[in-house]
Amino acid sequence: MNAMTDVVVITGIRELHPNSRRLVAERVQALCDETSVMVFGGAIGVDTEALIAVGEYSGSGPPQRVVVVPFTLRHQPAEAQRAIRYHAHVVRELDLPQGRSAYLCRNDVMLERATAVNKARKSDQHSLLLAFTDGRKSGGTAYTIKEAKELGIRTEIVTVGRLRP
Questions:
Q1: What are the tens digits of pLDDT across the range 99-158?
Q2: 64 CB-contact burial (10 Å; exposed 0-12 / middle 13-18 / buried 19+)
Q3: DSSP-based three-state secondary structure for 85
Q4: Cβ-Cβ contacts under 8 Å for 49 (sequence gap 6 or more)
Q5: Residue 12 predicted with pLDDT over 80
Q6: What is the pLDDT of residues 65-101, one digit of tens each?
Q7: Residue 127, SS3?
Q8: How many Cβ atoms from other residues are within 10 Å of residue 150's Cβ?
Q9: Where are the alpha helices (DSSP H) in 10-70?
Q10: Domain 5-159 belongs to what architecture?
Q11: Which of 5, 18, 144, 158 is most buried as measured by Cβ atoms within 10 A of its Cβ?
Q12: Rounded mean pLDDT of 39-54?
């Protein structure tokens, strides 16, 4: 990206293969100096790896880090809680009822930030969905990619390895 991006929403698989961690870190860090805000989902896997990578970025202007969790922080896995407490600037706890729909609602809330920026700026060039996927056509990452495209949010898809086949 050459121009400043106001919001980058990051989504991806939970079962991230260790060999793909560096790819995730390099890609999100490459966006840090050109991004005002990064929004993460707060799950283990891509969300946690990306949050840590951005938090450890030592460039000229690390972006604000916002984490959206479907329930409360204490409901997140211990690994994710540690990363969020250490690296997030803002944590938005949705405190939704348990169930799969809570995760999809969380993803919708993440995309709302990008949609609002695009509407305010009257352009789809001010936000980006950065999706790390193993190519599956179902699940939360696939859902979020589909929703972002329908909302007119620029989408970049990066294929990563999955821990379990």
A1: 989 999 999 999 998 888 767 776 666 799 999 999 888 899 999 999 999 998 999 999
A2: middle
A3: helix
A4: 16, 21, 24, 25
A5: yes
A6: 999 999 999 999 999 999 999 999 999 999 999 998 9
A7: strand
A8: 9
A9: 21-31, 46-55
A10: 3-Layer(aba) Sandwich (3.40)
A11: 144
A12: 96
Question: What amino acid occupies position 23?
Answer: L
Tokens representing 104 are 């999809």
Predicted pLDDT at 43: 94
Which two structure tokens, joined as six digits, stand for 54?
Answer: 């951005």
Output the six-digit token pair for 147. 């929703």
Q: Which two tokens stand for residue 52?
A: 């840590």
**What is d(CA 92, CA 72) in angstroms, rounded to the nearest whole number?**
8
Which is nearest to 51 in space by CA: 18, 74, 79, 93?
79
* Residue 135 buriedness (CB in 10 A; 0-12 / 13-18 / 19+): exposed
